[in-house]
Inverse folding.
């Protein structure tokens, strides 16, 4: 294993679901450095102060906080327009000399929209209202799709149970789960 791989910080599974006019976003709390868990209860989601949105991040914490601050600035600049603010952040993230070095992804949910924003300039709105980012994201996404299609669980229940399933599979995900709901 290369030294850069052995010291690579891995962390997080973030999952958001919209169902029946409600949105939930949750994450686990694990942060891993190489093959060692260095923290069990990292908080990776937050509500925005000036908009009815919940955001989550995967990647470098300082980078993600910087991006979340920029996203809030964009929301204020564009009158709370979620999609426009997300596109403007993604554009800046990709083209700005300082921002393009930041390594993180953002998940954003409102009561009716779910978006993934990346540093490659992507703003993705999944058709099924489910967003997932981070190390265990594909496990959580698969579980959420199955639960949404085959159960009556609400958005918060789907997020919580999907993250539990991901924690049982992904070594970079734990069961210290935090969920916020709109």
């Amino acid at each position: 294993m290369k030294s850069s791989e052995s010291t690579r910080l891995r962390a997080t599974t973030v999952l958001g679901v919209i169902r029946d006019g409600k949105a939930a976003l949750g994450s686990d709390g694990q942060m891993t450095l190489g093959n060692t868990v260095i923290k069990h209860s990292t908080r990776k989601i937050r509500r925005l102060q000036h908009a009815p949105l919940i955001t989550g991040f995967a990647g470098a914490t300082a980078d993600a906080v910087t991006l979340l601050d920029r996203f809030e600035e964009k929301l204020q600049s564009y009158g709370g327009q979620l999609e426009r603010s997300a596109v403007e952040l993604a554009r800046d993230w990709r083209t700005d000399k300082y921002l393009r070095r930041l390594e993180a992804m953002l998940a954003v949910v409102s009561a009716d929209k779910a978006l993934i924003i990346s540093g490659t300039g992507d703003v993705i709105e999944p058709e099924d209202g489910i967003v997932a980012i981070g190390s265990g994201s594909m496990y959580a996404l698969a579980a959420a799709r199955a639960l949404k299609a085959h159960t009556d669980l609400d958005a918060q229940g789907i997020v919580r149970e999907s993250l539990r399933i991901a924690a049982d599979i992904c070594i970079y995900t734990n069961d210290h789960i935090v969920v916020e709901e709109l």
Observations:
- The chain has one domain: 5-172.
